[in-house]
Structure formats: C-alpha cells, structure tokens
Amino acid sequence: MELVRVNADWLPWSLLLLFLTWDTSAFYVPGVAPINFHQNDPVEIKAVKLTSSRTQLPYEYYSLPFCQPSTITYKAENLGEVLRGDRIVNTPFQVLMNSEKKCEVLCGKSNKPMTLSVKESRLVAERISEDYYVHLIADNLPVATRLELYSNRDGDDKKKEKDVQFEHGYRLGFTDVNKIYLHNHLSFILYYHREDLEEDQEHTYRVVRFEVIPQSIRLEDLKADEKSSCTLPEGTNSSPQEIDPTKENQLYFTYSVHWEESDIKWASRWDTYLTMSDVQIHWFSIINSVVVVFFLSGILSMIIIRTLRKDIANYNKEDDIEDTMEESGWKLVHGDVFRPPQYPMILSSLLGSGIQLFCMILIVIFVAMLGMLSPSSRGALMTTACFLFMFMGVFGGFSAGRLYRTLKGHRWKKGAFCTATLYPGVVFGICFILNCFIWGKHSSGAVPFPTMVALLCMWFGISLPLVYLGYYFGFRKQPYDNPVRTNQIPRQIPEQRWYMNRFVGILMAGILPFGAMFIELFFIFSAIWENQFYYLFGFLFLVFIILVVSCSQISIVMVYFQLCAEDYRWWWRNFLVSGGSAFYVLVYAIFYFVNKLDIVEFIPSLLYFGYTALMVLSFWLLTGTIGFYAAYMFVRKIYAAVKID
C-alpha cells in the first residue's frame, strides 16, 4: 500500500486539523517526519497499555509488577489517547541502534532474582487467564508478534505455503493444564533501513519494524552473572516460568535485542501492521455491496419516477375533474401533508444533532481518506471527531432553527438549548455511568476527572454557544416554502393495512442501507473490540456515500407509500423508519457479541452493550436525518408539481 504524502493542495486541511487537535500531532502522515539514528544511538522502548478482548478493560503497564526505571515519565497524551485508555510511559529496556544483545537481566541481580508477592502473583495470574496483551512501541512503531501459518492446499508437505501474519502486542503469558505461565523473556527483533548518503558522511538508520518473540523460561534455567548478562538455555530443554497465585514467585525478567537490515522504506513501514487480514475478501465484499445497492437503487428510482409521472399526469387532467376527485392517493392529503407534527421542538432538535453528526462524520472520513489521520498518530481520529462535533454545532443549530420555524415554533431559545443538550446529554450520561464502573475496576480506560471537566467545558463553552448562534440565524431566516396551504380542520385518516405498521416499516426500510455497509461494520467492530487497526477510509468513504443514497431512496419510497395510503402523519414516522438500519446494527452487534467475543463477566458485557447503545443511537440519528431531509424535499417537489384548486 502506497501511503499518501502531503502536497501543497492539502495545506489548508493540514492547518485546519492542526488547529482542531490543539497540541496533538494529528496531521502526522507516514513519510513526513522520520527520525534518523546513528550507530549506537539509544532507541527508546515505551509501554502503551495492557489490553484484552475478553474484558474490554485496558490497564496501564505498571499496574503489573514489571521492572521499573529509576524515574517513571508519562508522555503527555492528547484527548483521543486518554479516551482510548493509552498511558504511554518509559521502560527500563536499554536498546541501542544496530547493537546486538544476547541476553540481559532487566532488574534483579544474579544472586537475587525478583520476588513477586502473593498479591502480585495473584494479579499477574488473573491477567494471564484473562488473555491480556502487552503493547510496546519503539520510534512510534507498535510491537507485533509474528504468526507463521502453513496452508497445505495440495496435500503435499513439500508444497506447504507459509502465510505470515502479525498480532498486535504480545501475550502476557499462557495457561496449560490449569497451570499459569508468564512470558518473562522478550526477544526483540528490530528492522532498520540504511539511508543512502554522500561520501564521508556517517550512516543513518531508520526503524521500520518492531517484532517480539515472547518466551517463558523458569528461574533455574536462566544463568545470570554480576554484569546483568544472562545465558539462555539451549534448545527446548528449558521449562516455562510458572506463576503460582497462592505463594510468592521468584523470577528474572530478561530480554535480548537483534537487528536486521530491511529494504522497507520509512514511508511504507506501517504496511506490515495494516495488512493483517485477507484484504481480497474485503475488496470483493465491498464491490459486491456497491453493485447490489446501485442495482436496487436504480430499480427503485425507475419504478417511483414512472409511477409519479403517471400520478401527476392524471391529477393534472382538467377535462375529468369529477373522476379525479373520486380517486384515492397522495393528492387527497395535500391540505394536511405539511401540518406540523407533535413535539416539533424535539423533532427539530434531534434532526439538528443528526446534521451535526453528518457533517462531523463526512469531514473525518474524508480527511482520514487523505491519509492525515493514520494509525501512527495515536488518538488523532478521536480527538478530531470530538472537536469537529463541537464546531459543527453551528450547522446543526442553523438547520434545527430553520426547521423549527417552518413547523410554526416560537420558543427559539428553548429550542436551541434542547438541540445543544438533548443528544450530547444522553451520550454524556451513558458514558459517565459506564465510566463509574471502569473507575471501580481501576482501569486506564476510565476518563480522568480533569478530562471530564475539560469535555464539559468544551460542550458548554464551544458547542452550546455555536448551536445558539446557528439556531438564532436559522430561526431568523425565511422558513422552508411549502407549496400548498394547510387546512384548518385535520382530515380523517382511513384505517391502515398491516404492512403500514411502524415496526414493519422499520424492518423493510433498514435492509437496503444495512446491506450496503454490514461488511464494513465487521471491520469497524474488529477495530473497536479486538484492538485491530482500521485504515480503509477510502472504502469507508465510498460506503458512506452509498449509505446516504440508499437511505434517501428508501425513505422516499416509504413516504410515498404512506401518503398513497392517505396517512399524512409522516414527519416522525419517516424519521423513525429511515433509521431502521440502526435496528439491524443492534442485531448484528448482539450476533457479534455471542459469536466473535469471549466476554463472560458483567462489567465487560455492560461496557459492550452501553457503547453499542450509543453507536446505535448515533447511527439512527444519522440515517434518520438523511432520510428525513430526502423525504421532505421529495414531498415538497411532488406537491409543487400538481395543480391544487
């Protein structure tokens, strides 16, 4: 994969992102700022966190009794890193550029190994049994464990193909026959690229890959001398280091360093980490979804355009007025179709939040597609999304204010406050409750109190004033021009068929948009819940466009059927039905939880379904807003095309 380089055309975007992400390095693109090392320069190994897909609770590195340096220094994190649970800290590993180390004791002396207390042993054993992974970085590259898988397609042992994949981080330990073993020796394999220089210049090196082979070696098999060097046992004669949670355990933490030269250039060094799964399946599925959605969309468009032309032609015949009046159809509700719905303030507020979400997601995906929010810039995606949501409040407020005035609303100040607080308040409330549970587990995933105060200040100091500003101008602007007048007396609505039921409508309307993006949903869920990298933002942008098109078209079809059934109460119903794909996202999330994740405890399950509820709510707001505005434009268009006496 050729990673994108910054050119002059992207300078405005770069400056915008640099401003939005405050003091972060969010517009860092691979290929922009390499670090050059000389021979024997120190290469710092830092720890990020401990993670497990079974518990979904990250912990900081020194929550376990690892060897500590003389001074522990935490890196200043951006907002996204804090929300992700990253706590980047220095470690005592001494690694020098292109300098080998056979085996070195990390802490403890030759005659005095490190002793884990009963409490520490119990904690380490618990983390190993929960499948925790340790995440380290060197020169901003995450450590990976090489997995060599052999595929024997022809049934011939000589023709076995070796498929190399990489696992993020390394396993803390493993269990075997009810015994728990700790990986106490790390074999670091670092790859460097030698830069071409002119004569008489010292060679410079760049780190392009960081691998580790974790091993478990018991105390008796490790021979250490007074200089902190050690000798590893030869072959497979050694036994692993067992951790007995019922007593104190003595052990050595050791490591070795091996350097290899690589042809991989610095700009392409992330390719190893980003190609961890079979991309061909991904490509095929995306293209398949694109073709199916466009095919169905084309059929829907042809049917509805032909039907509409026929309807409008019939309604506009002047020579047979009596027959026209006796017909049933959408023209008969022209005096009620623009009648304001119940709770117009709440409807306009939700739609305003939907516009806010839409603008934020569109810009984030587009900028990420340009390569400015690469995985190498930790937390940049989440930081940018948070700030953009705040700043997009002006657009959300403007659209909500104008719609509220169109729906004959008068209390614009209350409407603006509702827009600024309804959806963000629900999100903040759910996150705060979940955060209390994470706090109770002493996880690094818990948002610290100062960060929570900072988020509240952003909400009430940036988002709220911008929503009020947008709402003020939107409310003052001329309301949407409806082509027909509303009757004073509401028309009686005939009894509806079973398939016009709201829930049936949600099931019918949600299939097509969900079908367009459910493959992408799998990769997004893997990135969120299984600590994978997500980087195919070009495909995601394409899927987002298809989602917008399919939501719009299915919404138009549903509102057309509803008006043909002489039911003019389409405002709320269309908003709910257009977000029907969110119901399928919820069903898929439950399926993913049952089949893909190994979560059994209460708090991890609560976290999963709590954050899933937020995703489903946000997705419903997004798709509901897209469908609502498409249907509103459609309704105004068709009633403007017929002659009303």
TrEMBL record:
Pfam families: EMP70 (PF02990). The keyword Transmembrane applies. One of its GO terms (cellular component) is membrane. The chain crosses the membrane at residues 283-305, 349-373, 379-404, 416-440, 452-475, 503-529, 535-563, 575-594, 606-635. It is a multi-pass membrane protein. It is found in: Golgi apparatus; Membrane. Keywords: Golgi apparatus, Membrane, Signal, Transmembrane, Transmembrane helix. It comes from the Eukaryota. This is Transmembrane 9 superfamily member.
